[in-house]
Amino acid sequence: MDPLVILVLCLSCWLLLSLWKQNIGKGKLPSGPHPLPFIGNILQVDVKNIGKSLCNLSKTYGPVFTLYFGMKPAVVLHGYKAVKEALIDLGEEFSARGSFPLAERINKGHGILFANGKRWKEMRRFCLMTLRNLGMGKSDLESRVQEEAYYLMEELRKTNALPCDPTFVLGCAACNMVCSIIFQNRFDYTHQTLLGFLERFHENSKILSSSWVQIYNSFPALIDYLPGSHRKIFKNFTYTYNYILEKIKEHQESLDINNPRDFIDYFLIKMKQENHSQQLEFTIENLIATASDLFGAGTKTTSTTLRYLLKPPEVTAKIQEEIGHVIGRHRSPCMQDRSRMPYMNAVLHEIQRYIDLIPVNLPHAVTRDIKFRNYVIPKGTNVLISLTSVLRDDKEFPNPETFDPAHFLDDNGNFKKSDYFMVFSAGKRICVGESLARMELFLFLTSILQNFTLKPVVDIKDLDTTPVASGFGHIPPPYKICFVPL
What we know:
- By secondary structure, the chain is of the alpha+beta class.
- It is built from 17 helices and eleven strands.
- Its cofactor is heme.
């Protein structure tokens, strides 16, 4: 081999090793499994199920430990006490979004999910204000959810009690709610635009939960030049980007600043108001990225949660008894009913707790050098939050691996809140669409059980709900069910 090539390789290895040693010695990070040079702890973590790996490692290293993904450290928080201390007690310090190279490549720091600093604060504040203006938590948005529930019931009746996979139809209902907020219109369940969105969201969810993406995020500099499923995400995002851009152009032509119709209108009005501002946070790029974030967060999570309809038949029967007592057969459910339906409320919470949809929260990062317990975490360090460890805490939820609505009921059968219920995360980065998701889950599922009996195709004992993928999110297995009209 050419001596010059050997010299270059040696110098490169020395430089990388120096950088790695410098990084590993920074701050006073918690202990953890010893990382290997360059690749870190990637061989000690099951990239197909990172959530389970974190639980196993916590048995050895405790509730706060450090892992290296490639050459970058990530502090892992496991268990309610550590998570609460970071996200709630020290919410501002732990409010930054951690490194997620795949998302950074797509959004380039725009939007709300993966933005940071002033931009994130501006976008989050605007989203919360605009969603309230559009009826979040109010009767006018509730009426839109009730309307969508009506269309959902009509679609389920078309199945004629024959076996069907509910993924598609439930996804349509959830996606239409996001469409009504962003574009002020819904689509028929056979509309090609709606089908296109759902197909791409479903595909992206599977890819994001694959081991390939976990590797990409650990070694972005290398895999950026390699083929792989991550390139499909770029293609899918381009589809969504172009559609939203087309809608923005339509809105610009018909905009009435005194009568905003939807999220896009409110954003365009804000752009005009700050046209002469120096900050330039309200841009077309930020609008497209924020709308895309709302689609991704508001479509797949709700439809996936609703897919767990419901394994124990005695639970369904008890819900229908409560529906009959509180609502009856001929009136549409409304949100006021929820306070008088403690069992239904408990079941909804238990479904979300049990399926543990997002086992490891999107990465956080610390906004400054922070002393956390007996450690010093340097500014910008990634922080991984094990939501599984909170939702499966056996002291708060006895027999946490068992589906049991009693986890959210007191001795008198009343609904019991739990601080451990962090399915929407907690603190400064808690999901902006939480109230809409709760409304959809209650009204959609109550409407379904008011109108149908659920009949599994296989024996209840053979109905497997084990996720087929467990990376970024838990992807449930496909299954079929019969919606038998009452």
